[in-house]
Amino acid sequence: MNFKDIIIKKRDGLELNQAEIEFTVRGISSGSLPVYQIAAWAMAVYFQGMSEMETEFLTKFMAASGQVLDLSRVEGICVDKHSTGGVGDKTTLVVIPLVAAAGVPVAKMSGRGLGHTGGTIDKLESIPGFKVDLKHDEFIGQINRIKAAVISQSGNLVPADKILYALRDVTGTVESRPLIASSVMSKKIAAGAKGMILDVKAGSGAFMKNKDEARRLAELMVKIGKKLNREMVAVLSCNDQPLGRAVGNALEVKEALDTLKGAGPADLTELSVILAAHMLMLGHKFTDFAEAEAWVKKAIKSGAGFAKLQDIVSAQGGKLRWEADDYGLGTAEWVFTVTAEQEGYVRNLDAYALGNIAMNLGAGRKKIGDIIDHKVGLEILVKNNQPVAKGQDIAKIYASSETSGLKAQRLFSDAYTITDSPAMDEPLIWDIIT
Ligand code: URA
User: What is the reported pTM?
Assistant: First the structure.
């Protein structure tokens, strides 16, 4: 087979067959195809799209391009969760212990943050001693013992995606529905769980800025997952403003712990409860959603979810001071405030801008390999449509230096507006696809 012919076929809008897609994926993961040809192919896909059948083949061959996790020794129906990424999204830290507390096993492989969004592994590494690399036997053993483990994505999981994603990132071809769907779903399929919930975000802080695009992506991923014998649910949620109040690793861990104690922000609590309840349905613990939801709320009230997170942290070597206000996570040296210059209602808190401010403080990476500062970030005290008085604190900035803190303070002032009246609150969860 000649890869140039495959590129031309796609460029001309024709459907690739199974053999051509298999050849492409093999060539990407083996390194036998030159990057300029892969980039040209990705651009052809970007403009011409792919049929569902092509996307399904692409997902399947990408998933099989490296290690496939064997969860056959896990007792029970293993469930997984994936977020397409948003600012302030720490739901994994809340949801996993709640699901595990109900006895449904969660084998979670998570990623690191890149750019304006954070990653669960970076958040967990703000816990002193927390190990994110467990051997396969340790991983399975911990899941069977306490029903959950969270590890960093194995280097050999879906190597084709690693190469393709890095190329897409620098060739303007990330924003392609079939390429995003196959990238996400191949990793989820290789990670082995039977039931999956996808949190597909739309808004300024998300990949998909537009709700229609997010819905079409969610529908495509649910279809592909079902064809590959997975039980699937997608929750469509909004990330125009950050989720919760905290943006930055240690600050987000603290907020997740507070949420498990019933003292978290309303939006983070609402989304976490819905995601966890659907995961309990996917794990066949409940057949009635209202019962699942009631169970999750009770597990927050009783502290069962918080106790389960303590188990997970201890099992993975993490050391926190559970009684301390900051759980022993510590905070950055410099703290600045952003204050309201007039009275009114906060509007248009821009998740993308705030995510970038946090990244520039050191909470995220501009490029792979950058070192994270776990203690820096933002605490948003007043969210969209809430009233403020002149001079009231709207946010706190936690910085490692005076210079970076003052810069963040200046930039934060351009990332929201104050108006005379509030707008209608956008629903946080705007649809669920099953
Ligand atoms: N997340 C992924 O894993 N892949 C994409 O292509 C986009 C977001």
Answer: 0.93
